[in-house]
Each structure stands twice: as C-alpha cells, then as structure tokens.
C-alpha cells in the first residue's frame, strides 16, 4: 500500500486557510497555491537519493552532496493542476512537465481522457502528479491509469486538500502510489463537493464560474 502523508507545517496550514476563504481573489489565490505547492515540494522530495561530488570552496576542496541522477517529472491534471506547477518548478527547475486532460462524461459520470503528453523517458522518472483537490478520486484514478499506460512506474500524487472518500478510492485503485496532502478534509457532501473545501479550484485560479 502506498503511503499517505498529510502536512503539518504551520506555514502550509496558514496559507491553506486563505486559499479556502471565499474572499480571496484569483491573483492572491494563484500566489497562495504556488507557495503551498513549493512548501509541499520539500516533503514530496524528502527521499530523493543523494551522491557525493568533489567541489572547491573558497577555502579548500571538499566532498558535498547533490541529488543523484534520478529524473523527475511534474504532471498536472488539467486544468486546476496547472496552478501547482510553478511552485514545484521553483524547487525543481530541471524537471520535465507532462500534462493529462480529462473531462467527465455527463451520462456515465466517468472521467474520459482527451489529452496526455508525457516526457519520452517517462519510465525512468519519478512523476509528481498535481491536482489541488481530491474529491471522489474519479479524475485522479483515470489520470494515474493514463500515465501508467504510457510506462510510468514511480508516481506520487500531490493535492492541497482531499476528502477521505477520494483517498480511499486512490488507495484501492492505485495501491502503489504515495499520496501527499496539504490537509485532509471532513467529507464529501451530496453534490460530491469537499467539505469544508475551497470551492472549485479551477474557477478560483482563473476567475471563471
């Protein structure tokens, strides 16, 4: 079973409070999502492997640590996942960025893939899939299936907030995927919105309704 990590850093909790606030406008909302994504990135990358290299300081020659040759990729689920990419790239500027696009079929309510473009060497990379909200898990499950179908083997899912129902659905469908959350919320309501939640992340990022 993949591991579940829920952040407990005061800065993340502080910023998510203002992300939730309905009075936070799109500009500030985007900035906060970027900042929280960057802070969460410290935890998501905590177990990256290191290797020694030799460098010269102004004083002497020494061995020092760098991240080993492991390749990274960031894969936002369109469209809301795009809001988390910039913060991650601040930490990981050499990471490649893929994209997965899904829409929900109005009759079956299933997620349908309409776009997927990933780095060519996807099977060699650790992929961090970003989506601000994990509600029912339907979209994320389909996105992870699309990514695996193209050869990815090492995948992490990173969300700002989640409902327990969505977490359970991911763990059952993709037990090999670690899940990183800014906060775990109470539940889904009858309309499958996260409670207390933050509304529709895509609309709040881009000022649409």
TrEMBL record:
<keyword id="KW-0342">GTP-binding</keyword>
<keyword id="KW-0547">Nucleotide-binding</keyword>
<feature type="binding site">
    <location>
        <position position="194"/>
    </location>
    <ligand>
        <name>uracil</name>
    </ligand>
</feature>
<feature type="domain" description="Phosphoribosyltransferase">
    <location>
        <begin position="6"/>
        <end position="208"/>
    </location>
</feature>
<keyword id="KW-0328">Glycosyltransferase</keyword>
<dbReference type="InterPro" id="IPR005765">
    <property type="entry name" value="UPRT"/>
</dbReference>
<dbReference type="InterPro" id="IPR029057">
    <property type="entry name" value="PRTase-like"/>
</dbReference>
<feature type="binding site">
    <location>
        <begin position="131"/>
        <end position="139"/>
    </location>
    <ligand>
        <name>5-phospho-alpha-D-ribose 1-diphosphate</name>
    </ligand>
</feature>
<dbReference type="Pfam" id="PF14681">
    <property type="entry name" value="UPRTase"/>
</dbReference>
<dbReference type="InterPro" id="IPR034332">
    <property type="entry name" value="Upp_B"/>
</dbReference>
<dbReference type="GO" id="GO:0005525">
    <property type="term" value="F:GTP binding"/>
</dbReference>
<keyword id="KW-0808">Transferase</keyword>
<feature type="binding site">
    <location>
        <position position="200"/>
    </location>
    <ligand>
        <name>5-phospho-alpha-D-ribose 1-diphosphate</name>
    </ligand>
</feature>
<dbReference type="GO" id="GO:0006223">
    <property type="term" value="P:uracil salvage"/>
</dbReference>
<dbReference type="GO" id="GO:0005737">
    <property type="term" value="C:cytoplasm"/>
</dbReference>
<dbReference type="GO" id="GO:0044206">
    <property type="term" value="P:UMP salvage"/>
</dbReference>
<feature type="binding site">
    <location>
        <begin position="199"/>
        <end position="201"/>
    </location>
    <ligand>
        <name>uracil</name>
    </ligand>
</feature>
<dbReference type="InterPro" id="IPR050054">
    <property type="entry name" value="UPRTase/APRTase"/>
</dbReference>
<comment type="similarity">
    <text>Belongs to the UPRTase family.</text>
</comment>
<dbReference type="InterPro" id="IPR000836">
    <property type="entry name" value="PRTase_dom"/>
</dbReference>
<protein>
    <recommendedName>
        <fullName>Uracil phosphoribosyltransferase</fullName>
        <ecNumber>2.4.2.9</ecNumber>
    </recommendedName>
</protein>
<dbReference type="GO" id="GO:0000287">
    <property type="term" value="F:magnesium ion binding"/>
</dbReference>
<comment type="function">
    <text>Catalyzes the conversion of uracil and 5-phospho-alpha-D-ribose 1-diphosphate (PRPP) to UMP and diphosphate.</text>
</comment>
<feature type="binding site">
    <location>
        <position position="104"/>
    </location>
    <ligand>
        <name>5-phospho-alpha-D-ribose 1-diphosphate</name>
    </ligand>
</feature>
<comment type="pathway">
    <text>Pyrimidine metabolism; UMP biosynthesis via salvage pathway; UMP from uracil: step 1/1.</text>
</comment>
<keyword id="KW-0021">Allosteric enzyme</keyword>
<dbReference type="GO" id="GO:0004845">
    <property type="term" value="F:uracil phosphoribosyltransferase activity"/>
</dbReference>
<keyword id="KW-0460">Magnesium</keyword>
<feature type="binding site">
    <location>
        <position position="79"/>
    </location>
    <ligand>
        <name>5-phospho-alpha-D-ribose 1-diphosphate</name>
    </ligand>
</feature>
């Amino acid at each position: 079973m993949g591991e579940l990590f829920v952040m407990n850093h005061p800065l993340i909790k502080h910023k998510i409070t203002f992300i939730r606030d309905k009075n936070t406008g799109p500009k500030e909302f985007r900035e906060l999502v970027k900042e929280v994504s960057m802070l969460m990135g410290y935890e998501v990358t905590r177990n990256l492997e290191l290797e020694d290299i030799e460098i010269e300081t102004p004083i002497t020659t020494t061995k020092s640590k760098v991240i080993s040759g492991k390749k990274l990729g960031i894969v936002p689920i369109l469209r809301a996942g795009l809001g988390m990419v910039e913060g991650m790239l601040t930490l990981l500027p050499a990471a490649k960025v893929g994209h997965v696009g899904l829409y929900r079929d109005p009759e079956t309510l299933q997620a349908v893939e309409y776009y997927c473009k990933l780095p060519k060497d996807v099977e060699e990379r650790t992929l961090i899939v970003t989506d601000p909200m994990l509600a029912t898990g339907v979209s994320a499950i389909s996105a992870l299936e699309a990514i695996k179908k193209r050869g990815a083997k090492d995948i992490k899912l990173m969300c700002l907030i989640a409902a327990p129902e969505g977490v359970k659905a991911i763990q059952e469908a993709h037990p090999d995927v670690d899940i990183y959350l800014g906060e775990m919320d109470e539940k889904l309501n009858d309309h499958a919105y996260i409670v207390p939640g933050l509304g529709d992340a895509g609309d709040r990022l881009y000022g649409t309704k």
